[in-house]
Design a protein that fits this description.
The complex is a heterodimer of chains A (about 190) and B (about 180). Chain A has five helices and five strands; from the N terminus they run βαααββαββα. Chain A is an alpha+beta fold. In chain A, helix 2 crosses helix 4. In chain A, about 35% of the residues are buried. The chains are: A alpha+beta (about 190), B alpha+beta (about 180). The interface between A and B is large, with 38 and 36 residues. Chain B: Keywords: Endoplasmic reticulum, ER-Golgi transport, Golgi apparatus, Transport.
Chain lengths: ~190, ~180
């Protein structure tokens, strides 16, 4: 059908500048539909958060490529602290309009870091009913972080908690910590 | 949800890429769950309908417009809604002789920004959410319409064309027991 005409693929187009904006209300309604869709397919709160996290991972994976090419000139981060700072500032600024509030290291565990924001953009119009317990739809944003870390070769598990606002607990694999220590030692 | 005394005159805006990628994640998850483009189209339409019935309230709250007198008014309102929510400016064209059908032409669409449709999904209507939104929103203001995509730039057409057709005006049904 279209084999005779020269199809320009998506890679022929120049990369977007990322300055377009859409309404938050529109996004909130779309996100609400996504949460409802996930809710219909699971039966427990942890499963719901896991499904939302999966959605977030899809977003994170693609955002990573886009931001590295556009903001970092193709240079990817190889140090642990650098990638965390990248997420806290560049990724968060680009997706949510402002940087995340704090980045902390756990006192007792060198595999764990905390990214904290007082108010999560995706939770803006969400109120959690009592029967949903600890549900935090910012599991979506946790998924974004996890997608970025896993694709950048910093395997980690990211979970979301209601603490000081919204806290994302990032637990890195042993291999990441070992590798990073070696890098520092050099 | 709205606190008394606090009126947000200008809506908060977010980066369109978050929106684009979130919608893309939704469509690809739907494809994985349903495996069949027709079912996904139906699901997108249904979700769009749910969004439409809520977005109309937000639209009316923000624009405080009066009731539409005819389809030309409706077309203008839909056009300005796209501008408000997606930042795109579709053109209204191709009116039918009876002025009950029109087309919206999109030369750019934030939802399809990074999207390429593979050969296996050619019957997928990627932006079917729009059709559902328009249907849901109009139904809440007593207008029954149908909408469908005539052209889709993801499938190689030069532009994306969404056609809206007026079906009938809906009468408010009185609750049983009242006159």
């Amino acid at each position: 059908m279209s084999s005779l005409k020269l199809k320009t693929t998506i890679l022929d187009r120049s990369i977007s500048k990322g300055k377009n904006e859409v309404s938050l209300n529109g996004f909130a309604l779309l996100f609400s539909e996504i949460v409802q869709y996930c809710q219909n397919r699971v039966s427990t709160v942890p499963e719901l958060q896991a499904k939302l996290s999966e959605f977030g991972q899809q977003v994170g994976i693609r955002m990573l490529d886009l931001l590295i090419v556009r903001e970092k000139n193709g240079k990817r981060e190889i140090k642990l602290l650098q990638i965390l700072i990248f997420i806290k500032s560049t990724v968060w600024k680009s997706l949510f309009g402002k940087e995340a509030d704090k980045l902390e290291h756990a006192n007792d565990d060198d595999h764990t870091y905390y990214l904290i924001e007082k108010e999560s953009l995706v939770n803006r119009f969400i109120s959690v009913p009592k029967d949903k317990g600890n549900l935090n739809c910012a599991a979506f944003s946790a998924g974004i972080i996890e997608g970025i870390l896993n694709t950048s070769n910093f395997p980690a598990k990211v979970t979301v908690h209601w603490h000081k606002g919204t806290t994302y607990m990032i637990k890195f694999d042993e291999s990441v910590i070992v590798r990073d220590k070696q890098l520092e030692g050099r | 949800m709205a606190r008394p005394g606090v009126r947000v005159a200008d809506s908060k805006k977010i980066n369109s890429e978050l929106f684009t990628l979130t919608y893309g994640a939704l469509v690809s998850q739907l494809l994985k769950d349903y495996e069949n483009a027709e079912d996904v189209n139906r699901q997108l339409d249904r979700m769009g309908y749910n969004i439409g019935v809520r977005i109309i309230e937000d639209f009316l709250a923000r624009t405080s417009t009066a009731r539409c007198t005819d389809m030309k008014d409706t077309a203008e309102k839909i056009q300005s809604a796209f501008k408000m929510y997606l930042g795109v400016n579709p053109t209204v064209t191709s009116w039918s002789p009876a002025s009950d059908e029109f087309s919206l032409l999109f030369d750019q669409n934030p939802m399809t920004e990074f999207v390429e449709l593979p050969e296996s999904c050619l019957s997928l209507k990627y932006c079917n959410l729009f059709c559902g939104i328009i249907r849901g929103a109009c139904e809440m203001v007593q207008l029954e319409v149908t909408s469908w995509f005539v052209q889709d730039s993801l499938k190689g057409d030069p532009t994306t064309e969404l056609r809206v057709k007026f079906v009938k005006k809906l009468e408010d049904a009185m609750p049983a027991g009242e006159d």
